[in-house]
């Protein structure tokens, strides 16, 4: 065989083998929408940074959609395959008569992630001190506000009668409103709460997560049709999340902070570590992806107390634990 023919044959073989290798190593692309960017979602960023999704053959494209309504719109219109958002949104969608319901299949956080921040240092804080105060709350109908009201009522405070409740400020502008002088108390997510404390703009006096108990605060969900048509992909996704949950449970706040720091470039590493330590100490990060029935019922109790529950939905209707259980049993 002439050299030229041999060379052509070798090149052809290399191309064919390369194509075959590419075919074998090709990743399944997943469009993931997160409701906001938050240290609260640390295990998700760990799964990305530690390569747990890649190990499962998944290429995850993460988009921050900034709001539950926008996140669900992205999911329902095909702009996202999977959404990380509060479970209450799946109930709202179901109540609107969705023919392709949104199913919760893996839980990421299991407590509220907000903290009560006072403008002044408070010695020996008690919830009674909120009576007569101006309370800068969260958006009506959203999980933070519903949990906030639930906790206040648990302590004998009707936020609509006993406080001057402000909840017409857009989510993204709440910290700025408080920093500008609005409110005696504010309900804030991290890292803003810790940053305000460090800068002397406010002081953390209580945790809504500790007070409210376990709830499916943020879960991964997808349309029922997508789950049915992509069972293997959902299993791989859940397996990667479970790996990250185990890793976060076993590692120190310092180590976790280093891994997720690229997602919070404008936040000091020391603040990230403080926030993670606070969330770990109160058990905010779910240690496995199973959303259990008690948590689901607690969520609906909180929604009902806030007057935002359109209808009580059976656990089996909007929650799928089969995938999580299968992954955990491997």
What this model shows, in words?
Residues 1-20 form the signal peptide. The radius of gyration is 23 Å and the shape is globular. A five-stranded mixed β-sheet has the order 2-1-3-10-4, with helices on both faces. A five-stranded mixed β-sheet has the order 7-6-8-5-9, with helices on both faces. With 330 residues, the protein is α/β, with parallel strands linked by helices. The model is unreliable at 2-24 (pLDDT under 50). Helix content is 48%, strand content 16%. It has helices at residues 3-25, 42-49, 52-55, 68-76, 88-95, 143-154, 159-162, 174-179, 192-199, 208-212, 224-229, 231-250, 253-260, 269-281, 293-305, 315-318, 322-329, and strands at 28-34, 58-64, 82-85, 102-109, 114-118, 134-136, 164-166, 185-189, 203-207, 218-223. The protein folds into two domains: 27-111 and 215-329, D-Maltodextrin-Binding Protein, domain 2, CATH 3.40.190.10; 114-212, D-Maltodextrin-Binding Protein, domain 2 (3-Layer(aba) Sandwich). The chain has 17 helices and ten strands.
